[in-house]
Amino acid sequence: MPDDFTPPDTALTRLRESVPLVHCITNYVAMDLAANVLLAAGGSPAMVHAEEEVADFAPIAGALTINTGTLSPPWLRAMEAAADAANGAGVPWVLDPVANFATPYRRDASQRLLQRKPAILRGNASEILALAGQSGAGKGADSGDTVEAAEDAARALARQTGAVVAVTGPVDFVTDDTRAARVAGGSDRMPKVTAMGCSQAGLMGGFAAVVPPLDAAVAALVLFAEAGTQGERASQGPGSFRVAFLDALAGITPEELSNAAHLTWL
Ligand SMILES: Nc1ncnc2c1ncn2[C@@H]1O[C@H](COP(=O)(O)OP(=O)(O)OP(=O)(O)O)[C@@H](O)[C@H]1O
Ligand SMILES: Cc1ncsc1CCO
Ligand SMILES: [Mg+2]
User: Fold this and answer.
1) ipTM of this predicted complex?
2) Where do the domains of the chain lie?
3) Enclosing H/E stretch for 214
4) How far apart are CA 61 and CA 10, in angstroms?
5) Coil/strand/helix, residue 25
């Protein structure tokens, strides 16, 4: 573990003590789950995307999260304005470039946002490969590539942009270029529930409001791994898993996180 790293159990305690306001610009599919994930874990979400108000809202939040899932020109203008306002106010922000490999419009939009220097970049393997300029086998919002195949791309993106880069999948990979870790656990029901990744980006925002970016990304990955593991035990399929996952997020104690063996430093 790096010397100055805030472990996930401490990060969770801080999240629940401060209940940070998280400004979320996310897609129509994810809004409900992303808000409920933040509430269950210990944050205060606000879904605010009008271009007329985002620049006033981002500076009063503890963090901003931007997800391009249901992108259109007014949304993209709002995302750019919000990121600029967050940067101006020293508010950390998270980028989730959904399906950026699918169309030139999404590819260009994701690059424009990435140039605005997010503190954390989170995506599935196909999205991270595409951001690094490589072609993969993604299908719409779903990844078609392994996490291992995107690790070099993640390291290169971290080096080039200064962002902490998280690649999610059965075993997640996260790096700030100098440090790297893997997070195992969770459930194979997670990719069967839409917007789990989008919601995780929201949660990374919650943690980024209370701990540094690498520590925040790791805490969100570890909390998802543990809640997924517990949620699988208490569910019968994707529908009951979604409910059990939220219950687990709310019920997990810092002690349970410190005892869970999901995190391996490389
Ligand atoms: N097969 C799996 N086993 C365990 N955990 C998984 C599996 N697939 C995904 N996850 C977990 O699900 C969460 C979301 O990751 P995923 O890669 O599915 O995001 P995504 O493709 O961006 O999702 P979406 O776009 O639907 O929001 C992460 O915490 C990841 O670890
Ligand atoms: C299914 C879907 N389509 C656009 S965004 C989204 C949510 C998962 O990324
Ligand atoms: Mg996604």
Assistant:
1) 0.98
2) 8-265
3) helix 213-233
4) 21
5) strand
**What is d(CA 153, CA 167) in angstroms, rounded to the nearest whole number?**
10
Q: What are phi and psi of 82, to 5 degrees?
A: -65, -45
Query: Residue 126: CB partners within 8 Å, gap ≥ 6?
Result: 101, 136, 137, 138, 142, 143, 144, 145, 150
Query: Would you call 52 helix, strand, or coil by DSSP?
Result: coil
Give the closest ligand to the alpha carbon of residue 170.
Answer: 1
How far, rounded to the nearest angstrom, does the alpha carbon of residue 101 sit from its chain's CA centroid?
18
- Best residue among 124, 165, 223 to mutate for probing ligand 1's pocket (most ligand atoms within 8 Å of CB) is 124
Give the residue ranges of the annotated binding site.
47, 122, 168, 195
- DSSP letter for 47, please: E
For the whole model, what pTM was predicted? 0.98
Q: What is the mean pLDDT of residues 144-159?
A: 97
User: Where is the binding site for substrate, in residues?
Assistant: 47, 195
* Beta-bridge partner residues of 167: 123, 173
DSSP class of residue 142 equals B
Q: List the structure tokens of 143.
A: 């990844």
Q: Which atom of ligand 2 is nearest to the CA of 98?
A: 9
The pLDDT tens digits of the residues spanning 35-64 come to 999 999 999 999 999 999 999 999 999 999
CATH code of the domain occupying 8-265: 3.40.1190.20
Distance, CA 177 to ligand 1 centroid (Å)? Answer: 22
Would you state the torsion angle of the CA atoms of residues 122, 71, 15, 230, taken in this order, to the nearest 10 degrees? Answer: -70
